Amino acid sequence: MHKRLPLLFRQLMYNLRGGFLVRPLSIALTLGCAGAVLSWLEETTPALSQWVPGVIFPSHADPQIAQIILGGIAASIMTVVSIVFAILLMTLTLASMQFSPRIIVSFTRDRVTQWTLGIFLGTFLYCMGALPAARSLPRPFAPVATVLGAMLLAIACVGWLLFFIHHISQAIGVNQIVDRIASETEAVIDEMMPRPHSPDRLSHPDAGLEASGAVVLNACSGYIRFLDTKRLIALAKSYHVRIRVLRRVGQFVPAGVPLVVLSKAGNLSEDAAADFRGTFDLGPSRTLQQDVEFGVLQIVDIALKAISPAVNDPTTAISCVDQLSRILIRFASREQPEFLLYDPPGVVRVSVKWIDFERLLDSAFEQIRMYSKGDVAVSLRLLRALGDIAIGAPARHRGVLVEVGRRVVAGCGERLAEEEMRRVRSRLAELEGV
Predict the structure, then answer these.
(1) Domain boundary assignment for the chain
(2) pLDDT for 239-258, tens place per residue?
(3) 341 DSSP β-pair partners
(4) Whole-structure pTM value
(5) Within 10 Å of residue 245's Cβ, how many Cβ atoms?
(6) pLDDT tens per residue, range 366-418
(7) In the CATH scheme, what is the code of domain 183-195+206-294+307-355?
């Protein structure tokens, strides 16, 4: 179990940043403990309550006022929490229906929403934690400083609710959604590919490490969400084998299908196979931990729905193409992750599959190209995006970009009139001249 701790810790940190459970619960528990501790300190240190103005609490020895205030705030906050949850669920439903079910991940990672739930629930727990201290027996005591804190939290919740409604009304806009997904995808690229592109560096080999021998089968079906390459190298050294990873991050692996193949013949022990499986984080859905393509596909989903005959919203599709070009420009400007991992230098230990530029370009633009053949505005923007990517892309990628542009023009030729085709061909000529 201890061998999986780094992977489990990463999962915990990812959930902390991107879920409705960990961060709101942490905020709520912190405020709840603050209410209980502050009321206890106030009871053990009477001087803490002496600075509270008598206008707010005429009698510091009357617990009924404190009980009424704390109980009233707790009850009203739970009503507000119900409203917040209703607004949030309505937003998620509308966004999933109008854009794509996959963008719900982006909403759950929104920090304003997480803080909103945490602060409201925390105010409720703060009042619950302080309420037992306001009692009449064995001697009357009112935690007036703690009650004042509850009143300040209630006022803060009113302001935060207004801010949350304003934030949600903006966050549901398609431009905001697509921009947020693109920003998150760029962050993944920066983490996975920290080094800028080097023109003198050799391209990665197409073929991975040739390893044939024992096979580690997958135990549970799911998408590969994260691969612990450092742990995989350590296992390769420990078992004196070379490892070839058969599926890349983002791909689905059914149970019983090989995950890795080793250079060592024979059968592996169950403990050894479990060690190798432990380097993979598999789940029912893809995430943006290492999966750059997942961010691209979320934007592509929005674009495809926008250019569908039922919606017919080319402006949204154009916005999606712009953001996709932004992601591909960032991807092309960085050195791709290592396909072959060495330790020590010169000794190949692991061969890993990562998505390359051509596959990411295909994922970004191919479906949009196919469904936008009759839309001159989207096709022109596709060609401009290809030209923008080609300006800063390495020379080896420009031929692929030009070929995609030619396919765009060929598809438009099936549906567009000659006058419109002249504009499309002119844009292709600009791309070819980059």
Answers:
(1) 2-172, 183-195+206-294+307-355
(2) 888 899 999 999 999 999 99
(3) 350
(4) 0.81
(5) 26
(6) 999 999 988 899 999 999 999 999 998 888 889 999 999 999 999 998 888 88
(7) 3.90.1170.30
